[in-house]
Amino acid sequence: MEAKKVCVITGAAGVLPSAFATEMVKNGYAVALLDRNAEGAEALAARIRAEGGTAAAYPCDVLDKATLQAAHEKMLAELGPATVLINGAGGNSPRATAANETFTAGDETREDVATFFNLDKAGFEFVFNLNILGTLLPTQVFTPDMVGKKGCSVLNISSMNAFRPLTKIPAYSAAKAGVSNFTQWLAVYFAPAGIRVNAIAPGFFVTAQNKALLFHGDGTPTPRTGKILAATPMGRFGKPEELLGALRFFTDDSASGFVTGVVLPVDGGFAAYSGV
Question: Which superfamily does 6-272 belong to?
Fold first, then answer.
C-alpha cells in the first residue's frame, strides 16, 4: 500500500478518534490506526478499506515506546512516513474519581466511599500517564517523519476540563490542563522544524468512557447530565461529526498554515457560560 499523505491516530478504536479516521480518509489520507484494542482497530481499518480507503491497524500501547516504535516500522513499510499525528488516546479511571463533588465533614477519615483523601495513587498515576505520556511518546516516535516537510502537523486532544476543572475527576482535569500546556510547548519547539501543533478541547460528547456517568442503566439521564446540559448554552451533547470542522482546519496547511499552539474549544458554549 502506498499513499502520499499518512495520518497516524492513537486510541483509534474510540468513538471520537474513529470519526477522525473516517474524516481523514475522506480528506485524502491513508490512516494508521493505533490502539491497544487490536480487534477494534482492525474492524475500523477493514470498514475503511471496504469503502475504498487505505487503512492499516497496528496494536500498540501509547505508554510502551517499544510497541510504538514497532508500529512505526510496520507503518513505514506499509503506508509510508507520517504527515499528521492525532494523539487521540486518553481518558479517566474510576480509581481517580471521587464520589462527591465537594468536601463533607468526615471525608478525611471515611473509607466506605471514594473521597479526595483516599483516591488511589496508582489510579491518579494511570490517568496522568495515559494523557500526558500518551501524548509525549507517540509524538517522540512519529514526528521525526515530519521534520523539514511541508504540511505536517500534530493534533492533540485536550478537554474543557483543561480550562475549568470538573468536580469528581481531579486527575483527568489536571492531566488535560497538562495536555493544553504541552501543546503550546510543542508548538514553540517544533516551529523551526515546520511542524504545527494544536489541540481540540471537546466539550461534552457521549463516549464509552463517560456513558456510565451520564446515563443510568435504563438509559435515563443522571443528575450529572442535567447539570452539564444546564451549563451548556446549546442545551445538548455534542456529536462526533461536530468536531470534524476543527479537525479539517487544523490539518489543512492551506487553511491553517500560520496557526500553531492553539487549543480550540468545541463545546456548545460551555466555556463562555458563567452560570448566570
Answer: NAD(P)-binding Rossmann-like Domain (3.40.50.720)
